[in-house]
Every structure is written in C-alpha cells, then in structure tokens.
C-alpha cells in the first residue's frame, strides 16, 4: 500500500514541528532551572507545588517518550503496541491538561472564597468534565488505523495536539 504524497508531506511537517517544539521545551527547562530551584524547589511543600512539578516534569518525560516513538526508536510493528501507545498517550495528555485545570480551579477557589457550596460546585463540575474527557479519550483510542507499520499513522485522540487549547476531539 503506497502512502499518498500529500499525506507523507504532512506527516513530515508534523514531525518537524514536533521536533522543533520539543527542542524549545528542553531549552526552556535549561533557561529557567536556576529560578525554579530558587523559587519552587526551596518553597514549602504544598499541593500547588506538587501539581506544578508534576506538570513540568511529567510533560518533559511524556513528550520525550512520544518523540522517541515518532523518531522510530520505539517503533514496533505490533498493533497491540500501537494500541497501548495510543492509550498511554491519550491518558498522558489528559493528565497534563488536567493538572493545569486543577491549578486554575484552586486559584478560582482562593479568589471566590472557600465557601463549602462554591467548593462543592467546582469539584462536581470538574469531575463531570473530567469523566467526559476521559471517556472520549478512551473511545477515540480504540479508533481505526491505517494498514501501515508505525503508530504515527494511527488515528487517535493525539490529534488534539494539532490545535493547542482545543478541548474537543
């Protein structure tokens, strides 16, 4: 089965942008490591600090894992590998996105006050939203695939990353 030229070009462009984005991400870590050690690592332990560090380093590790697969270093011709890779990627993206959402909710709670009713509304709304997102990610990870080796050619929830800030899939 031959790959259409336009699809191959689009795939190459996606890989190039992904590599450039990962390079900028790693460069940003090196640029800000001194300030992070000074202001974040030396700060007292808190839930906000843990969420920030989870997002910062979880994002770096997850993006590196995805880039290794895109570069062909983790490529496996097994469809089950691609299925697991797609599922792990979908869950990873949700965790990174939701850790930031939780920080925004905590900030909103601090601004609006710590009333029990407001807290309950925020928690219930967020839980409903998260369950819908998780269900959508799991359903999309079971989507179709193109009969070519490599997980990059699989249609999945990971297409969400093509449109930053998008919450629909």
Walk me through this protein's architecture:
Residues 17-58 form the DUF6533 domain. InterPro entries: DUF6533. The chain crosses the membrane at residues 84-106, 118-140. It holds the Pfam family DUF6533. This is DUF6533 domain-containing protein. The longest helix is centred in the first third of the chain and has 37 residues, at 5-41. The protein has helices at 5-41, 47-70, 79-112, 116-141. The protein is built from four helices and no strands. By secondary structure, it is mainly α. It has one domain (5-162). The protein is globular, with a radius of gyration of 19 Å.
Task: Describe the SSE topology.
Layout: H1 5-41, H2 47-70, H3 79-112, H4 116-141
Keywords: Membrane, Transmembrane, Transmembrane helix
Protein name: DUF6533 domain-containing protein
Transmembrane segments: 84-106, 118-140
What percentage of the residues does DSSP assign to strands (E)? under 5%
Number of domains: 1
The chain-level mean pLDDT equals 77
Judging from the principal axes of the Cα atoms, what is the shape? globular
User: Helix segment count?
Assistant: 4
Radius of gyration: 19 Å
Task: Give the N-to-C terminal Cα separation.
Answer: 28 Å
Structural class: mainly alpha
Which runs of at least 5 residues are low in confidence (pLDDT < 50)?
Answer: 153-169
Give a short account of the largest sheet.
Answer: none
Estimated helix fraction:
over 70%
Compute the number of strand runs. 0
Spell the H/E element sequence.
HHHH
């Amino acid at each position: 089965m031959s790959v259409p030229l336009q699809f191959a070009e689009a795939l190459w462009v996606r890989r190039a942008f992904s590599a450039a984005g990962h390079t900028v991400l790693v460069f940003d870590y090196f640029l800000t490591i001194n300030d992070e050690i000074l202001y974040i690592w030396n700060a007292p332990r808190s839930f906000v600090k843990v969420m920030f560090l989870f997002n910062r380093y979880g994002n770096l590790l997850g993006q590196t894992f995805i880039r290794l697969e895109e570069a062909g270093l983790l490529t496996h011709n097994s469809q089950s590998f691609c299925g697991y890779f797609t599922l792990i990627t979908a869950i990873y993206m949700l965790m990174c996105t939701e850790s930031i959402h939780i920080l925004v909710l905590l900030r909103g709670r601090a601004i609006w006050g710590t009333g029990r009713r407001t807290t309950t509304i925020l928690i219930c709304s967020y839980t409903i939203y998260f369950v819908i997102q998780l269900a959508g990610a799991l359903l999309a990870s079971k989507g179709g695939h193109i009969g070519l080796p490599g997980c990059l050619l699989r249609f999945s929830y990971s297409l969400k990353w093509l449109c930053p800030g998008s919450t629909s899939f």
